[in-house]
Amino acid sequence: MLSKDTFVVMTLIQNMRNPKAYLCILGFLSLFSLCACNEKYGKDDYKAYFGGEVQNPQNPYVLLYKDTKVIDTLLLNEKNRFFKKFDSLAPGLYSFVHEPEYQYVYFEKNDSILVSINSQDFDESIVFSGRGEQKNNFLMEMYLRNQRDWDILLQVMDYNFNEFEKTIKQVHEKNIKFYQDKKEFIKWSDNFDVFAKAALEMPYYSKKEVYPILHQLRTGKDIVEQLPKNYYDYRQNIDFNNVLLSVYSPFVKYLSYMLNNMAVINYHNHFSDADLSLKTNINKMNIADTLIQNEKVKNIILNNIAFTYLLEDQNMAKNQKFMEVYHRYSTDRSQKNEITKIGSAIQLLKTNQSLPEVKLRKIDGSIISSNTFPKQKTVIFFWTDNAQNHMMQAHKKVIDLKSKYPAYNFIGVNLDKNPKKWVQIVEKSKFQDVTELQVLDFNDLKYKWAITKIHRTIILDENGAIKNAFTNLFNNDIEEYLK
After folding, report:
1. Total-model pTM
2. How far apart are CA 3 and CA 7, in angstroms?
């Protein structure tokens, strides 16, 4: 006869999205039962357990965060598993990171949670088990539903208002039913319901925010004046100062969409204005300062605005004006330093200047300085094994450009941490006409070359000086810079 624990696990396997997760669950079953399930807890006892298995790990650890702070580094053993008993873990939302990916995990008092992860299909692979599994599997399922909804609904952004509204309401009603059924069945706490509701509502509101902007981009038609007067009434139901949601992605993304919408709409008749980007982003900060009183929430939103703006507009005079407003509103000194570092890096990447020095690894394992790059026309692009489609498309594009512009030296900089795996990928892929290097210290690269996205491309002239430090291999005008 099956034991109770085994029966629970087998039932879970039959209903999970990814049956391969049973490897993690069965592997931990005995340990989990001994350490967690049979333990007795007192009224003031906040012990909790967190463990799991990572298939195809990208690095030997999982980081557990509370808000923006690492509270533990969970090392993988020889079977790529991790397990940790916390003598005291405050209930609430946490995030676990297996770089470069992350997801959320919600702990209530005395929860004992296992998670199965496959780094090559991160979000789709995640399944939780143990005490606290149901609410966490709900958050994951809600996340995946919203991802699928976005892919579908992007196709209807060019619909007229009535068709658009009808379509997103139909999808939202299905998600409401899913939320209500799960809430009734699981009977989760009011504290967890804050995040459950945000997972339901914020993506829906986000679609309404982006509709006027995307509709104009796709159709060329400004639909703002045609929207019903009550179109944005849902904003009145949102607590913009909810500190619990300040690090929850659906909420933060919604605020970003809303601020962008409000700022752009103020200028929607002036799209030819050369200073539109600066005006729009300063306007975003002005609105955020007025709308959001909670300092923590406000600082997070200001930082998001700043990162985005500083990496899209490299006009030094405009950046200075932007930073003056940013420093006026931001009170988070540690995060402000982060923004300041990126801003300072951009200042060092002016045209005709030398590229700041970073250390890089060659295929043979030797370390070189970027200062030793040959003094010739050069294109530097970036890639990671965690974005394989981009990796292949970027190299394909480079090979095409090399055939047209043979005088250029093309350098591919890998951003991953595992030298052995990087070498294996390069040798297996046999990328031709590319100098392959791997960054030694990503943070050093990030702050010196202002690299926060893999799509960035740097072009150097025949003297090794910067020609354009902020372009993209896939930009339509890339070849204009290479001529």
Report:
1. 0.75
2. 6
